[in-house]
């Protein structure tokens, strides 16, 4: 008997149930029936592969621009690049919106994803998504059933 390794293939997307800064699961309603979730493409997906390629290209460009020396991006670039990358692997936000102070309407579409991830005061969300997508175990058939 042999293990059919194909049965362990990662799913392309998974849902992260977002927690507040204190680590408590967020719900959109008082009855706690509408979980606040973010649907993301995982490490085995095409979207994730595109982001990894973009990150490698950025690193190589920085090295070329700095005479072959490894250099880190400045804080503003890092926030912007992280927001861009996470927005590219985000498929949907469920049960929440983002309407910054002074905005007439909530932000929508990919602008919504980028705006949330680029807002330093919502960094707890960014960190959760980064951690979630780095764990292949979140993209298994068993994790979808949970």
Care to give the gist of this entry?
The chain is mainly alpha-helical and 146 residues long. It has helices at 46-65, 75-89, 109-118, 123-133, 141-145; strands spanning 13-17, 37-41, 90-94.
Explain what you see.
The longest helix has 20 residues, at 46-65. The chain is mainly alpha-helical. Helix content is 42%, strand content 10%.
Write the layout of secondary structure elements.
Elements: E1 13-17, E2 37-41, H1 46-65, H2 75-89, E3 90-94, H3 109-118, H4 123-133, H5 141-145
Antiparallel strand pairs: 1-2, 2-3
List keywords for this structure.
three-stranded antiparallel β-sheet, flat, 146 residues, 5 helices
- Number of DSSP strand runs: 3
Shape: flat
Q: Report Rg.
A: 18 Å
Give the DSSP E fraction (strand runs of 2 or more residues).
Answer: 5-15%
Name the average pLDDT: 90
Spatial order of strands in the largest sheet: 1-2-3
- The structural class is mainly alpha
Order of helices and strands: EEHHEHHH
Name the helicity range.
Answer: 40-55%
How widely separated are the two ends?
28 Å
Q: Count of helical segments? A: 5
Q: Which spans of ≥5 residues are poorly predicted at pLDDT below 50?
A: none
* Biggest beta-sheet profile: 3 strands, antiparallel
